[in-house]
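Much of our argument rests on the idea that a fold can be written as discrete symbols. The amino acid sequence and the backbone structure tokens for this protein are reproduced below:

___
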Amino acid sequence: MTRIPPRAKPRARIELPLSARFAYTAWLAFLLIATSDAGAMNNNTCRGPISRRSFLEAGSLALGGLSLSGLLKSRAEAAEQGRAATDAAVILIWLQGGPSHMETYDLKPEAPAEYRGETRPISTVAPGVEVSEHLPLHAKVADRFTIIRSISHGFANHAAGAGRFLSGYNPFRLLDPLAQFPCLGPVVSKMLEGRRDPSLPRYVASATNVYGGGSASLGPAYLPFVVGGDPNAPNFKVNNLSLAPEMRQRLDDRQLLLGAFDSLRRDVDRTGLMDSMDKFNQEAVNLLTSTQAQKAFDISQEDDAVREKYGRHKWGQRALLARRLVEAGVSFVTMQMQNPSIPGAIGNWDIHAVNGHLFDDTRARLPVYDKAIAALVEDIYDRGLDKRVMVIVSGEFGRTPRINPQKGTSSKVVQPGRDHYPGAMSVLACGGGMPTGQVVGSTTAKGERPRDRRLDPNDLLANIYRHLGIDHQKTVPDNAGRPVPLIPHGQPIAELL
């Protein structure tokens, strides 16, 4: 937890822990409702899967937003500059822990046994494209996605790898679970401020942060609206998303009263916290009074056959919820596929031998993953969203091409596993109007490094920003307050244009 430094003098800067900011934000927004009528509302080494504590999945009002005056001003400026509003959206399916490219999208059946393992490739409907035998539903829709096999970077730690992949910058604190540079989701939330429907959040995620990701210098106002829990649970609901009709007028009145204190609060505040609070509160009001948002998050409205197609499990229903959200108008959605509660599979994709048996985990995990991703790909196209919505499926890195057997912590026997490996990884991409049914790049015979078309995560980030109508050369402040480009280098991948 961030330490609160002692006050040196009356004007000393006070740094609140991030959790305290969230708590204060929710309290402030809902205090306006409650007080309107008291009676009206009765580690240096990887030691196993990352703990659940690292991936908080509780409902939160960690929102981005604008004051009404700021929103109108931004829209006027956009009109003057001839910038058309865009409804493009991105779904990022994040495979925390780092999936094995050698068991999913880049199998090497001719490699020595200690590299290729037990998993075999199968053909797909796209000529020349092969995937794992445990992904038969992928094989049926391979003409609707692209596999990128030649992305690599240099950071083998979970936090550093995720931060590098999602921000485009080399982290300088390798084990810090929070990003040191603004990452993809918060950047999108910031850059699309004032250009989207304010009744919906711009950025939604299944956890407050990807491990190693975050908003960094942009501040907490651009963190996601969090949809925690299991969307497949019978009692699943999104907290903080409804308001009784009779309370809406009272809330409007209290907002006007609160606005009278804005200038005073800004004069007093020297931390920037109040600016974030203003954004939180504005979007909280938008969501609380938006039936559009309530409908988008209500996954129970989906036909049972559609829900079955995705799979009646956490991963499948998260993928379905992501589609519902972007279809409704949310700009960026991150859904983490971890903690699947699948017998025989570990909590995330970090399949070291000490954590579990590589091939047992693969056989248990991939069929569940296969159903969710194949259904999402097919749905994006069948519903006519393939030009507007881009889907990216990735983790922070791949796994070591050479299998590393060790004694399992639980099994107490020597078993196969693969370790962290940023030298080669595979990414699935679809939608966004991109050409599909293809493979971009390749790795060497043993899957150790890119052989041709070597790519950087920044190149993929450039594609994502371009799709969303964001100039990746625009700047944001770094932690020292200096302007830096969204990504320091990289160009869109031509095969995806």
The longest strand covers residues 425-431. Residues 262 and 398 are 48 Å apart (CA to CA). The two ends are 43 Å apart (CA to CA). The chain is about 30% helix and 15% strand.
